[in-house]
TrEMBL record:
Domain of life assignment: Bacteria
InterPro entries on file: O-antigen_ligase-rel_domated, WaaL-like, Wzy_C_2
Name of this protein: O-antigen ligase family protein
Keyword Transmembrane helix: yes
Species, as recorded: Citrobacter murliniae
Length: 586
């Protein structure tokens, strides 16, 4: 297989990912990471593409010495904290580190890729096509929500009247559409053919409308910032005027579309809100615009609390970090130690900032690792005289802003891949080619290529079995966890290890409610206690408290009441008096 064949195959693979896999509404588990069917399929795709790209490692010269060093050094430093992380949390930690190393490996392989300007444009066109499809799905979801719900996992009430595309999360959709919008603007200014530039202008209008429809503040801000940067780097009045025109037209189309959706959300039962208010109804505003304003107001306060709690956690373990996968349980304790009121009604798995997250859990070493990666990300902007390179760097803004205000890389493997691809396309040729190339010996070159094949094929096998185990868990949950045999996962016990442990504990409790077998309660305590070491769940904590009272174990009941008050102080099921919150029960 020669280089040009690999190029054509890679373009086909990218089309399959962004237009095929991403556009289909896959049935999925609730949760994040390996619980999401789309993420598993994307990682299978990455492994297969990586195996094809590994052919390029047979060359005598390895390109991109400096980027490779930064990638490997950063990945190693972010992995070192695993050494002092308790083994009971290694399952989730290794999943995250696996994603980090997969991104590094994919980037290293892409640096060997023989890319030309026309092929770069083809990749941007594929991303634009995917964005237009997501815009169409978004319009479908808000204009015909019942029909969309019948075919997808979308819930109009659950998403507060806003679209989620096939990402199942509003801000993930927003950052993707903002990226596609900037890709269309780039083709407007740098397209090789006049017809392509005109088509890109029409696509820009549609994608701008898509960004408006999401009502995502971070997506809108990043789209505006990226457009302004492109105008600064381009400096041509016709282009600046064209950007203003497509932005105004897109905004008009987006607002007109929003005006056609239903104005009021349906009145729904909400158990979580009922635990907070003592009622069975969601008492938030039913008007969609008022609900959006309400959510934003609370989101701003929560983000400020996240920042204060994250910094408190950093100060308590500034050099070593608190250990990988520890943030969810350590964060409420950090708030309590600082006397900060916890405003969250759900558990907080990550701070909404990647730098804070990495520093909290991994300490100075992990922070240094991610800063090495960021030094590679800003490389396109260092080529200030090459305006076209700088404008390609602007395409990274939506994802970078999203990473610093949310946690997209742990929710969406598509965003991981998109970040790697956009960075690869944006890197100056001088960084990829001008440094002294590494010339490994024949045995070493053979070993590197063999290792790459082994990693890619092993990853494919792991993810295929993960897909099988996720399907099995979905079947068990469809039967309300009443059939324990469905939880004896035979495909892959490691991919959804935490989800599987939670479901097995919940199944024991469900079966106890049917046959009153006390041994099931003991089994539940064991499995739920293990799960709660690294996670928070109000229902499970309340069940542990009640079971402790059932067995007349007052200290245990006090402990679980205390844990519930730390993470869910507004939940009326827990007695959160001042005395309880002053210290952890023994």
């Amino acid at each position: 297989m020669n280089s040009r064949t690999i190029v054509k195959f890679s373009l086909l693979m990218l089309f399959i990912l962004f237009v095929g896999i991403l556009s289909w509404p896959w049935k999925t588990l609730s949760g994040y990471g390996m619980d999401i069917t789309l993420n598993i399929l994307v990682w299978i795709w990455v492994a297969l593409w990586g195996a094809a790209l590994s052919i390029l490692l047979w060359r005598k010269n390895i390109k991109g010495s400096l980027p490779l060093v930064l990638l490997l050094a950063g990945a190693i430093l972010m992995s070192v904290p695993l050494a002092w992380t308790p083994m009971s949390s290694w399952g989730e930690s290794l999943t995250r580190l696996g994603g980090i190393w997969a991104m590094a490996l994919l980037m290293g392989l892409l640096l060997q890729f023989p890319l030309r300007g026309r092929e770069r444009q083809c990749i941007y066109m594929i991303i634009i096509a995917a964005g237009i499809i997501q815009t169409g799905i978004s319009c479908w979801q808000i204009l015909a929500p019942e029909n969309a719900a019948a075919w997808t996992e979308y819930s109009f009430a659950g998403q507060n009247g806003r679209p989620a595309g096939t990402f199942l999360q509003i801000n993930l959709l927003g950052s993707f559409l903002a990226t596609a919008f900037l890709c269309a603007l780039w083709l407007m200014s740098s397209g090789l053919m006049p017809g392509l530039r005109k088509a890109s202008m029409l696509c820009s209008v549609l994608l701008c409308a898509g960004v408006i429809i999401t009502q995502s503040r971070s997506a809108l801000l990043s789209a505006i910032a990226g457009g302004v940067l492109m105008c600064i780097f381009n400096r041509k009045k016709p282009f600046i005027l064209a950007v203003l025109v497509v932005t105004l037209l897109g905004s008009f189309v987006g607002e007109a579309t929003l005006n056609q959706r239903v104005k009021l959300l349906p009145q729904t039962l909400d158990t979580a809100m009922g635990n907070l208010t003592g009622t069975n109804h969601d008492e938030r505003p039913r008007d969609i615009d008022l609900r959006t304003d309400w959510n934003r107001q609370h989101s701003d306060a929560e983000r400020f609390t996240l920042l204060k709690g994250g910094m408190a956690l950093i100060y308590s373990h500034i050099f070593k970090g608190s250990g990988l996968s520890s943030f969810e349980t350590a964060f409420p304790k950090a708030l309590a130690s600082e006397g900060i009121t916890n405003p969250f009604t759900v558990t907080v798995r990550y701070p909404h900032n990647e730098l804070i997250y990495v520093w909290c859990e991994g300490g100075i070493l992990a922070l240094t690792g991610i800063l090495l990666w960021l030094s590679l990300v800003i490389a396109p902007f260092r080529a200030i005289k090459a305006r076209n390179v700088c404008s390609r760097g602007a395409l990274l803004l939506p994802l970078l802003l999203h990473i610093m205000t949310e946690y997209p890389l742990y929710l969406s493997a598509v965003h991981c891949v998109l970040l790697v691809i956009l960075l690869w396309l944006a890197l100056p040729v001088t960084i990829k080619n001008s440094e002294k190339r590494w010339q490994p010996s024949f045995p070493l070159r053979l070993g590197i290529q063999a290792a790459s094949y082994v990693l890619c094929l092993s990853g494919t096998l792991f993810m295929v079995t993960a897909l099988q185990s996720a399907k099995q868990l979905r079947q068990a949950e469809d039967f309300w966890l009443s059939d324990p045999s469905l939880l004896a996962v035979s495909g892959n016990d490691y991919a959804q290890a935490d989800h599987l442990l939670f479901d097995r504990a919940a199944s024991d409790l469900a079966l106890f409610n049917i046959n009153s077998d006390v041994s099931l309660l003991i089994q539940f305590q064991s499995q739920a206690g293990e799960w709660l070491k690294w996670h928070n769940d109000s229902n499970m904590m309340d069940s542990m408290r009640k079971i402790a009272l059932y067995f007349n174990n007052s200290p245990q009941a006090q402990y679980w009441n205390y844990r519930g008050c730390l993470s869910f102080p507004q939940d009326t099921r827990f007695s959160c008096t001042t005395a309880v919150m002053q210290g952890k029960p023994q």
